[in-house]
Write a structure and sequence with these properties.
The complex is a heterodimer. Chain A is mostly helical. In chain A, 68% of the residues lie in helices and 1% in strands. By secondary structure, chain B is mainly α. The chains are: A mainly alpha, B mainly alpha.
């Protein structure tokens, strides 16, 4: 509580400082604008440095997974490598294909970045430390992230390149399909938290504040909603087009997909937005399922008057960024039809079943007076239900695999004597 | 600069965005570029919803129209070879004007004859801003503008009215969507 007062006081102090510099009252409109500008600049700065070192981290981490060292020549541990890459990217020749639609081609590269930055407006890093606490925060995140398809489409169409168009088509089919399990899996969490605000979702997992009122105090949603968490993580990996779901850019099939024709800085913008979205999605996974800026144990939340929310939020975000990189290092890429089948035949039904289960148990536990405010009992309820759901799913998948016949290849058909003799002879 | 003036400027900018998007749709030389202009228009409309304190509606507008419907349009254009090339700029504009004019007339009549009541929230000024006495009387009980967007009740109220007043419509829509889905699968399987 002391830390909270301290924080609010410090925000008030910044407000007063700005107002004093501008010679205005502390609640004047210009002060609000200045605060917004400052939060925007802070987001830009933090996210950009984060992105630079995410590339370094990815190369190091993948290197270790593949028994290599990764970059280690520029600076200690290769720490200056991102800057060397940046200089390289900036000095490369900027090529626009002769057949390309100039306006759409260039706009596609430019517009791919803003959605990936804007989503950070609803990422909280502590009490009062959020650029804008929208009442529809989570929906805001989803809707802004979903607009990122349009620049991809523009890039694919504007390039006038077959590979680019195929890549764009694949990207759109994939993103539109995986948006559904991504949102459906989170609906269970939203039901339990009773809010769409990202700050509210974080607080609902705390053991002080709003969590008490809702009846699930001190439980991270990953404990109550483990299946939803796995669905969300997989669907998000597909949304941000990272391996094993990076079919839009599968270099062994279609060169680089929708950004085949981009070079230099414009290619850099695509990379930039992808890393931004990776960081944002990692942050969203930790907000929704791992308590956001809440410490794992209450006494770790603060040192003296210093609130450590930013530290926990950062640590969890980096953890999930590493999980995405781990996926990339260890899983092979899926085939395009397998990918769509996985979304529609496995993830969507499973997230619907999970939603039904959550709704039922949530209704029972919240309406019964004996159960509300007993986290362990609620946890037990959900654990049993989740285990049952998981077993049912595995059984269904096994049954389906046993009963669905794989189309046999020619060799097998010939061995079974199913081919007409003429074809066997040929 | 008063907040009221800022709001007017914001409205003008958003209206300009929507209208220039709409103008681009009819003037673009290729159907694909037309569709892109349409998206700009959708974004402008979402901004207008934000100004009307309908944050939820604005977010849904972006999610559904920008993120889904326009993508569907783009997809359809890319899959249809005939319209992928350079199309003629709209040559049927007299016919289009003939069709659109009655609708425009209806809208204009509604706009000029409606009883516009200043609703709570949208014009509430913070302390010290000067407004006319008449407006001040209207907004004394209003919610401060900066809180309007954050009202937790917005989504709750929407959900409640969907599940009580409009339950039948809600269920019917769900059934219609299901039928459309099944129909799409049947067509795709043929």
């Amino acid at each position: 509580m002391i830390a909270m007062h301290f924080l609010q006081a410090s925000v008030g102090w910044i407000r007063g400082l700005i107002a004093g510099q501008l010679g205005l009252a502390a609640d004047a409109l210009w002060v609000d604008l200045a605060i917004w500008l400052i939060s925007a600049l802070v987001i830009l700065g933090v996210v950009q440095v984060g992105m630079l070192y995410a590339t370094w981290l990815e190369r190091k981490f993948l290197g270790r997974i593949q028994d290599r060292l990764g970059p280690n020549r520029v600076g200690i541990f290769g720490l200056l490598q991102p800057f060397a890459d940046m200089v390289k990217m900036l000095t490369k020749e900027d090529i626009t294909p002769a057949q390309a639609h100039r306006g759409v081609f260039n706009l596609g590269a430019i517009l791919v970045v803003p959605p990936a930055i804007v989503v950070f407006a609803v990422v909280p890093v502590g009490i009062g430390l959020i650029a804008t606490d929208l009442s529809v925060g989570f929906l805001f995140f989803i809707s802004v992230a979903s607009t990122a398809i349009i620049p991809i489409f523009m890039a694919g169409w504007g390039s006038r390149n077959k590979f680019a168009i195929i890549g764009a088509m694949r990207a759109v089919a994939q993103i539109v399909s995986y948006e559904i399990p991504q949102v459906l899996s989170v609906v269970g969490v939203l039901l339990l938290a009773g809010t769409l605000s990202t700050q509210g979702l974080t607080l609902a997992q705390g053991n002080g504040g709003a969590g008490d009122a809702i009846g699930y105090p001190g439980l991270w949603f990953v404990l109550i909603q483990p299946i939803a968490f796995v669905i969300f993580l997989l669907a998000t990996t597909a949304e941000i087009e990272r391996t094993p779901f990076d079919i839009p850019e599968a270099e062994s099939e279609i060169i680089a997909g929708y950004h085949t024709e981009y070079s230099g800085l414009k290619f850099g913008l695509f990379q930039l937005s992808q890393y931004f979205m990776t960081i944002a999605s990692a942050a969203m996974a930790s907000i929704l399922f791992f308590g956001g800026w809440l410490a794992p144990l209450p006494f770790l939340q603060r040192i003296g008057p210093l609130d450590l929310g930013w530290f926990w939020m950062g640590a969890k975000t980096i953890f999930f960024v590493l999980v995405f990189m781990w996926f990339r290092g260890t899983w092979p890429r899926l085939r395009s039809d397998q990918l769509m089948g996985f979304a529609w035949k496995v993830l969507v039904p499973l997230s619907l079943a999970n939603l039904l289960m959550t709704g039922l148990i949530g209704y029972v536990t919240q309406s019964s007076t004996n159960l509300s405010g007993q986290p362990l009992l609620i946890l037990l309820f959900f654990a049993v239900a989740n285990a049952l759901l998981l077993m049912a799913t595995l059984w269904l998948i096994g049954w389906w695999r046993k009963n669905s016949e794989r189309p046999r290849i020619r060799f097998e058909q010939a061995a079974a004597g199913e081919l007409p003799p003429a074809e066997v002879a040929a | 600069m008063s907040p009221l003036l800022l709001q007017q400027i914001a409205f003008m900018v958003l209206a300009a965005i929507s209208l220039s998007g709409a103008w681009g749709v009819i003037r673009a030389h290729s159907v694909f570029v037309s569709a892109l202009w349409l998206i700009l228009s959708f974004v402008g409309v979402a901004g207008l919803y934000v100004m009307l304190e309908a944050g939820f509606l604005a977010v849904i507008q972006v999610l559904v129209y920008v993120g889904a419907i326009s993508v569907l349009i783009l997809f359809a254009i890319m899959l249809t070879e005939d319209v992928m090339g350079q199309a003629e700029p709209a040559s049927q504009w007299p016919l289009a004007v003939l069709i659109v004019l009655p609708f425009f007339g209806m809208l204009a009549k509604a706009a000029f004859t409606a009883d516009w009541q200043l609703s709570a929230g949208s014009v509430a000024p913070p302390e010290g801003a000067s407004i006319s006495a008449e407006t001040a009387k209207l907004v004394t009980t209003a919610i401060p503008a900066e809180q309007g967007f954050r009202l937790p009740g917005q989504v709750v109220m929407l959900g409640r009215s969907l599940m009580t007043e409009h339950l039948l419509a809600f269920e019917v829509v769900a059934v219609v969507l299901l039928v459309a889905l099944v129909g799409a699968i049947v067509i795709a399987r043929d």
